[in-house]
Amino acid sequence: MQCRAPGCLAATYGYSTYCQNHKQKLRRHGAPTQDGITVHELRPYVTLVETRKAKNPTSEAWAILVARWDVVQDNARATLQRFAEGRAGNRVERLAAHHLVKVGQSVEPWVVIKTALGLFILQEQQPARFTNDAAFDFQLVRRVRGLTDSNAGAYWDHNEQRSKRVYRDIPPRVIQAMAHPLKAAFGTAGLMLAAKERQDIAKASDERRRLTTALEVLQ
Question: Can you give the pTM of this predicted structure?
Fold first, then answer.
């Protein structure tokens, strides 16, 4: 059978309705046609967050966002503690909590926050970059997990004669379980910052238009 991904002529893989490549993308990125958001691609949007914070250094918003990340960490640790005490629970929730705590142990809160907020701004400015909501969730988790080296391995590329980092994938259901608290903590703030950026772009565009009009009527 032919892969059901748009434009793909490859044969399906195993029992999947997709070829091996698109099946892997579905598992890794949340949609068979979704490409991963790279650190380089996200960097300009993270810079927008940093610039906004630099313009408003005394805003209470930053402390509130740190407190929200602390709540995510507290809830994750509480989940792990329940499992450690032998109480019944969901394995997916335990694994999600484990990975969230791992990030919290090795990454500064503000680094996590600005990365997450940057993703929301990117989504607002380039909605077509994400195939669907699940694809966004997967990229959010992927970029947050990518902040710590503990989620990556390395191998030697004989062709290029150098070491390369390899991202360690986790089950899709665990990714979805991790995305929920991240979106709850940072989603509203991310959308509001995206709106601020949109307003600034519109203001700059209007100023350029008025300048052009004013220059055109000069004698």
Answer: 0.86
